Amino acid sequence: MTPTLDIAADGVATLTLNRPQHLNRLHREDLLALQAHFARLQNEPAARVLVLTGQGRAFCAGYHIGEIDGPEDPHFFERTVDALEALALPTIARLNGSVYGGATDLALACDFRVGVTGMELRMSAARLGLHYYPSGLVRYVSRLGLPAAKRLFLLAENLPADELQRIGYLDALVAPEALDAEVARIVALLGGNAPLAVRGMKQSLNELARGEFDVAKVRQREAVCATSDDLREGLAAFAERRAPRFRGC
Q: Which run of H or E residues covers position 16?
């Protein structure tokens, strides 16, 4: 079953990988469905936060290697992950279990990753004879640093959950029964902040990490927030010692 998207009344969108019998491995039809969901979310004003997760005991086993039959297949996967990273709304990878192969980059493209004790990660490109695609290498190096990226790509070793937290892959590590509460905590924090500021700074920070920092673009985003209703509401709420009611405009 291809990934499903649900957008709740509170603006929390949940995108679920739905092949638990195969550890949620991704086929071409799954990538097409993900791309369609990302396109919808990019143009859906009601969605304020995206939670990406999987069914069953693993988050995702990566791309189905039986479908890698030409040089374009990694590019197809790359475009899917890049579309996730490019989403304006903040994203959380709810890692309900282990993550392998290209799925490690899918999770890394999210803004935050919450994992569970007992999970592991393996980036097995070198063991398959694959040279990983450019944007994935950039994500690994810019987000985790060169030593961690070399360890994951060149050694292709299994890393346990506590080590994933130590190298910065996981933002939070909890017991499986505490996963939903921790994700809800981060969702609440994101949801309580001004959407214009969050989305603008997300884009600016990602550009900075990739070495694509454009001061003019950052100034433009800064100016949009400086004249926004959200800023006026935030200042008023601070002065009145109440929670702000942001509208994203």
A: strand 12-17
Neighbour-count burial for 163-179, b at 16+ CB within 10 Å, e otherwise: bbeebebbbbbbeeeeb
Complete DSSP assignment for 69-120:
-STHHHHHHHHHHHHHHT-SS-EEEE--SEEETTHHHHHHTSSEEEEETT-E
pLDDT of residue 69: 61
Amino acid at 72: E
Fold of 4-190: 2-enoyl-CoA Hydratase; Chain A, domain 1 (3.90.226)
Sequence-separated (6 or more) residues with CB below 8 Å from residue 56: 20, 21, 23, 24, 96, 97
- What is the rounded CA–CA span in Å between residue 233 and residue 153? 46
Write down the domain spans for the chain.
4-190, 194-240
- Please write the tens of the pLDDT for every residue from 88-132: 999 999 999 999 999 999 999 999 999 999 999 999 999 989 899
Q: Is the pLDDT of residue 72 over 60?
A: no
Of residues 79 and 69, the one with the higher pLDDT is 79
CA distance 112 to 92: 5
Contact indicator for 84, 113 with CB cutoff of 8 Å: no
Q: What is the pTM of this model?
A: 0.94
